[in-house]
Design a protein that fits this description.
The chain is of the alpha+beta class. It has 9 helices and 7 strands; from the N terminus they run αββββαααααβββααα. A hairpin with a 2-residue loop joins β1 and β2.
């Protein structure tokens, strides 16, 4: 069934895939990343806010934040990339037609295939970035097994996932990319992407960059994050609720 539907997707052009990629001068300041609109790095155009692990670690093991993979201001001229891709342009009319015909299985299958195609597109674009567009790994030659094992240099973490678990950072990414205008992908009020078969995130090229989970965080970091985001503490606690290592009501009562 999946092969037959995939053939229809290709032969009848049910879906359209689009991508936008960008690169900007960047440097870190503590747990923030300043994104500049000029190579002289005098004019920040956006600030990316990262979160830092706060769990107990063995001696010699650092609590990581994504800002650690960008050179601190004043030390080196670094860069950061961003992307948004979709394979879901055109999926909604077909899904609605299946649902109207009470064919929920086909609707679910089409959505699942579009999701997989979007992930594959994101992986292919990352390869093009490493080898051509950014070109920091131009000599890369990896087998499919190595690619699946992510043995390449660099990462593409997405807001809402473990290394950057706060979703509102997507808004900054979409402003930098002008993603809605360029490829038609929109953000909802809760920072979900539409069409749903879309992937977005940032590109880091640091040789030691790797994926990690921020995990639970304490109130001191939430207060600092609220200050950096220009939020109230209540706003920060609402957006960071799954990460809180404390109960806000109990803390306020105390």
């Amino acid at each position: 069934d999946a092969q037959a539907m995939l053939k229809k997707i290709v032969d009848e052009k049910w879906l359209t895939a689009r991508a936008v990629v960008g690169f900007w001068p960047a440097n870190s300041v503590d747990d923030d990343i300043l994104v500049f609109g000029d190579k002289a790095r005098k004019f920040p155009i956006e600030t990316l806010h990262t979160l830092r692990q706060q769990m107990a670690r063995d001696a010699g093991r650092a609590n990581l934040a994504l800002s650690d993979f960008i050179a601190p201001a004043g030390t080196a001229a670094d860069y950061i990339g961003g992307f948004a891709v979709t394979a879901g342009i055109g999926e909604e009319p077909h899904i609605k037609a299946f649902e109207a015909a009470k064919d929920d299985y086909s609707a679910i299958l089409l959505r699942a295939l579009a999701d997989r195609l979007a992930e594959a597109f994101a992986e292919r674009m990352h390869e093009k970035v490493r080898q051509d567009y950014w070109g920091y790994a131009g000599e890369e030659t990896l087998s499919n097994t190595d690619l699946i094992a992510e043995k390449y240099r660099g990462i593409r973490p997405a807001p809402g996932y473990p290394a950057q678990p706060e979703h509102s950072e997507k808004a900054t990414l979409f402003r930098l990319l002008d993603a809605e205008h360029k490829i038609g992908v929109k953000l909802t009020e809760s920072f979900a992407m539409w069409p749903g078969s879309s992937v977005s995130g940032f590109y880091y090229s640091h040789p030691e960059s790797r994926y990690f989970g921020v995990g639970k965080i304490e109130r001191d970091q939430v207060e600092d994050y609220a200050r950096r985001k220009n939020w109230t503490l209540a706003e920060a606690e609402r957006w960071l609720a799954p990460l809180l290592n404390y109960n806000p009501r109990e803390m306020d009562a105390a």
